[in-house]
Amino acid sequence: MDSPRSVAFHTLGCKLNFSETSTLSRQLESEGFLKKEFDEEADVYVINTCSVTDNADKECRQLVRRIQRKAPQSLVVITGCYAQLKPKEIAGIPGVDLVLGAAEKFNLAGHLRELTKGDSARISSCDIDAVSGFHSSWSVNDRTRTFLKVQDGCDYTCSFCTIPMARGKSRSDTVQNVVRQATELGRNGVKEIVLTGVNLGDFGKGPDGARTSEESFYELVCALENVEGVERYRISSIEPNLLSPEIISVVAQSRRFMPHFHIPLQSGSNEVLGLMRRRYKRELYAERVALVKSLMPHCAIGVDVIVGFPSESDAHFRETFDFLHSLDVSYLHVFTYSERAGTRALDIHPVVPVTVRHERNKTLRNLSYLKMQHFTEQHRGQVRPVLFEGHEKAGLMEGYTDNYIRIQTPHRAEWANQIIDWTV
Predict the structure, then answer these.
(1) pLDDT by residue (tens digit) across 33-54?
(2) Domain around 161
């Protein structure tokens, strides 16, 4: 009897990608594949790519080269956003056997049955406008938190972003199905579910992208509040214009939704926001932050911000810095702008020198560090519930409070995946 084929996965990018990789792994295991770690030798390697930054593209190429050195006879499959955006470019990388676009990602098992090493790289992609349907995905056993995908795609046209070209139009699961999945995850011992999507606040459009019902992200939050067995939910990221006062109010009163929002800003300059084609101004962003903190003073707020966007002057950057400094937010995710093929931002001038972009990134990362230090000190001495993760590193384990303060302590196996009251 032949031994089962083995497969190893590697994920680049966002929480959404992690949930999809986990689902693909379960699909292949159900088909008889043996799962291996990526640094082990396997018959098939699958790389689920991101294309938000140039680094993700470069890392994909480096991973393929590493596989070629370690296991030259193994099959290499590339899927994810980079695969959808540049399938021919990826097919030209020595060692790549199959490139799967957005519509074919979840048909991986079928493609592997027909794939043979040594043939020229196959591309199974399609026009992104033809991509429809919603594929439920969630991560299990990978980490304490489970990432549950409830929405995919985006109808926005931000001038710096390739995601709509990589994932297609906005479409969602149903409230009923998400509740069913959350209930099942809770039964399986999952303590915390992170709701993920490309444009999470746009939840409510069906698999074909049409809004055919009264379902909305607000309705989803209300429904999940009543699911027994799941102790914690987090909202991964939500646009400020879609974070309604009603959603904020529900979270403020919730027993299960954590006091933690991640709200993309991208720039503190209204002029730059306009060039980015964002759907709000800084005044609305400040209003949302103020409302959150008025109802939940202990709430953590994370912020996405891009530095070095074309035409961002020193004065624009100073606006952003001063605005962020003034806001009662907890930490920043700082992205250095990188040129992406097919985006409108390529037509905006002048271009900010790369050295200046990196300087601005460092300035905001320093601000982020100070913000998080200040936020943590505000809660020093308070007792807050911490969900500890299972993995051990240098004799330590870590977890997060309800309001996203990271806690480290000597490893205790009995605390893994347990919620412990902890004095910050």
Answers:
(1) 999 999 999 999 999 998 766 6
(2) 131-258
